[in-house]
């Protein structure tokens, strides 16, 4: 169920606009009206279901935003690194910065002068 909610939320965030995010919990009354007869617990737990979905949406959107920021930063870094290599320069600052997160694998890539 979580993966379905996250896929729908990502779709809304990406294609309907970030202003449309956090919209799934608002659809709970429609789901209750449609499926309440088959699942009577929806009628009694509608508020709880909406709260759980809203919390899940907010958590997922925070994670999604962090991931997109990280991706954008890495893409910028990769472009800067490619441009530096094209000019014949080694981007030591970028390598040193990555050492903290990627460990000694970076040392293997460093040119020995």
- End-to-end C-alpha gap: 55 Å
- State the helix count: 5
Number of strands: 0
Question: What is the molecular shape?
Answer: rod-shaped
- β content, as a range? under 5%
Question: What is the structure about, briefly put?
Answer:
The chain has 113 residues and is mainly α. It has helices spanning 2-15, 28-35, 40-86, 92-102, 105-109. The protein has one domain (2-88).
Textual characterization of the structure:
With 113 residues, the protein is mostly helical. The chain has one domain (2-88). The chain has 5 helices and no strands. It has helices spanning 2-15, 28-35, 40-86, 92-102, 105-109. Helix 1 (2-15) crosses helix 3 (40-86) and helix 2 (28-35) packs across helix 3 (40-86). The longest helix is centred in the middle third of the chain and has 47 residues, at 40-86. The chain is rod-shaped and about 70 Å long. The termini are far apart.
Write the layout of secondary structure elements.
Blueprint (H helix, E strand, L loop, with lengths): L1 H14 L12 H8 L4 H47 L5 H11 L2 H5 L4
Helix pairs in contact: 1-3, 2-3
């Amino acid at each position: 169920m979580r993966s379905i909610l996250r896929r729908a939320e990502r779709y809304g965030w990406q294609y309907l606009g970030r202003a449309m995010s956090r919209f799934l919990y608002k659809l709970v009354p429609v789901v209750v009206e449609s499926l309440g007869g088959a699942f009577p617990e929806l009628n009694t737990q509608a508020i709880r279901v909406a709260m759980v979905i809203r919390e899940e949406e907010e958590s997922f959107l925070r994670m999604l935003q962090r991931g997109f920021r990280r991706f954008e930063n890495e893409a910028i870094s990769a472009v800067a690194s490619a441009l530096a290599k094209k000019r014949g320069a080694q981007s030591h600052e970028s390598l040193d910065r990555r050492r903290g997160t990627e460990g000694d694998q970076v040392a293997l890539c460093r040119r020995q002068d």
